[in-house]
Amino acid sequence: MSSSPAATVTALADYAAFAASLADAVRPLSLGWFRRRLAVDDKADESPVTIADREVETALREKIAARYPSHGIWGEEFGKQGLDAQFVWSVDPIDGTRSFITGHPLWGTLLALLRDGQPVVGLIDIPATGERWLGIHDPANGVREARFGGQVCATSPVTSLAQATVYATSPDIFDAVEYARFERLTKAVSRRRFGGDCYAYGLLASGHIELVMEAGLQTYDYLAVAPVVEAAGGVITDWEGKPLTLTSQGQVLAAANAELHAAALACIRGA
What pathway or pathways are given for this protein in its record (predicted)? Predict the structure, then answer.
């Protein structure tokens, strides 16, 4: 027997509260290593990793397994398990490790809960600033709630590219073809900024910026931000306009609303 909409809403609220409790629990761990001299290893994809990444993910995995032993987990540092489960957690212990190891405060912990392969709960936690975005997005049951620091947040009403601000973590994330498409968009908007990693998606959800365009992301980079952006009223897809899933290729376009998203898609396609 399937759950009623009311029961589903209650369950999602419980999952969101659990995600918040996870972020609370690991904040002291990540902050304990922040702005300390750390050994930095390079992974196979040339991205950096430290003891902080591994320690935080280990703690998250242990707590998820203790509370929801039937759930799957896909984490950045220790891989995936149980992806055939109905519920799967996506874990990025420190999104923005390059920022973390250089003392820049805008790195975060990302958590997402997927139900049947679709992210329905997302959390962006910024330990160094004490900021947090939490989103629940379940269109099938009419649930949409985005909060920043406990208060409801919403995306910008700007629908014109000419009035929009676009963010990307770095120009280095694009290959030559991708960068040409990014340049096409930045010439159409009011301004562009670099930096922020997951923080940029929080800024979008709170209405401070209108667009984020990135490439080369991994599942744990984008799955947590998707429910936050969507619950706040935004749209987030790949560069072809397709929903983000476990098998997306890491090209992400987020916009404050459907009209702006459509305009941005048309722009990067050269239309």
Answer: Amino-acid biosynthesis; L-histidine biosynthesis; L-histidine from 5-phospho-alpha-D-ribose 1-diphosphate: step 8/9
**Within this chain, do residues 118 and 167 fall inside the same structural domain, yes or no?**
no
Total of domains in the chain: 2
Domain boundary among 117, 152, 187: 152
Are the CB atoms for 195 and 98 separated by under 8 Å? no
Each residue of 57-110: pLDDT tens digit?
999 999 999 999 999 999 988 988 989 999 999 999 999 999 999 999 999 999
For the entire predicted model, the pTM comes to: 0.94
Based on the number of CB atoms within 10 Å of its own CB, is 239 exposed (0-12), middle (13-18) or buried (19 or more)? buried
120 is written with which tokens? 């329905």
Which residues 6+ apart lie within 8 Å of 150 measured at CB?
Answer: none
DSSP H or E segment with residue 30: helix 5-33
Annotated binding site for Mg(2+): 76, 92, 94-95, 221
Could you tell me if 166 and 186 are in contact, meaning their C-beta atoms sit under 8 angstroms apart? yes
44: alpha, beta or left, given left = phi > 0 and alpha = psi -120 to 50?
Answer: alpha
Q: What is the DSSP letter of 189?
A: S
